[in-house]
């Protein structure tokens, strides 16, 4: 496969502003990561768009939408659409990467969109990446079958999960993120420790169908469980997710899973999840799957 990187004006690759999520993360997501990786793959690149099998559209969608009030009320969209229309040569050859919850929010024709956090928009699911959490030198002992740390208001499934599991023996349900800085620091430390003290890390969907917690759990060596109406575990054509994670479409299904899962199975999945995260889903490790998906489409 040969790829032509579409030249884009600086306005389509805006500088970051102060907003970071999660708070411990660098301002560095999959949109920038793919471009960095692809520029190193000289064997894949061509300077002739006519000879290329695919055109890569390297717009930093998330930065744009954040810098334009999260596109509330369509802020910035006409300008963005006009600039992107100038860049795309052949939408049937084009692909792009986005981490923003709503995707590109534009009409980009047949362009293939790889998306890390989709809501009702379509696309090929990609991972969410962020800076690794710190691990203590001595890992905490397991004391929870499953745990969740975070807010409950971003999706009804979180409220339901809290209601049905908060009093269940062996399950830890953390609360809202504190506002004071020092409390947030302790909360973040407890997030790591509570997750590592669990056999399963619960990662319910929020505003988007995906969850940072899913991939953070993998990095911490704990079997993640995605909970939500859409299974957005990425690159299912190539990654054996059932060997390294769990998925529950509903809280009822999650309760049944917790009734039947064994600690030995969860431990094994957690170990495999970490190895897979380190080798295949970390910064620039995941990008090869974009090429595999494009080859599959072709």
Automatic annotation (TrEMBL):
This is Exostosin family protein. One of its GO terms (molecular function) is glycosyltransferase activity. Coiled coil: none annotated. It comes from the Bacteria. It comes from Mucilaginibacter myungsuensis. Residues 140-255 form the Exostosin GT47 domain. Pfam families: Exostosin_GT47.
